[in-house]
Write a structure and sequence with these properties.
Layout lengths: L1 H20 L7 H15 L2 H7 L9 H8 L13 E5 L4 E6 L9 E7 L7 E6 H9 L4 E5 L12
Helix pairs in contact: 2-3, 3-4
Length: 156
Amino acid sequence: MKKLICLLMIACLLIPTAVADSAPQLDSKMFDYAKRALYCLASGEYGRLVTHLPFSDVSPSADEWESFVGNFRELSEPQSEYAVAYWNGACWNVAVPVYEPTDSNVEVFVLTSFDGVSFSGYRYDIWGQIEFEYAHSEHVTWNKEYAGSTPMVFIG
């Protein structure tokens, strides 16, 4: 009986730990929202971002988006193929590189989400930092995983 009670107590202690580490389900639409938002930033459609993105609280204003664009060196013709989402223990980060992430200095548009269905914030970053962050995450989801070209040698 003592063993059974001991096992039940251990299980009760471990359940909150397992729940605390779990990430909320990420809605698959979050990738589409983030990629479309990057396109709107690049094309100067800041007003559209205010109504397009599902923010959990107050959406940033068109003026705030216009000011945010100043972080990027170049936004003409952004890519829409690659995006990664990863859980950092507190929120999802949905990261869309502006161009194909061929090196660590490629600029990245990042939207954050606490619940996986609406956004709570946004930031500018570079691909090297994003790689570091998702490498240390237990929950990583790719829209389409980037696999840089690796030289192959054929011996015949």
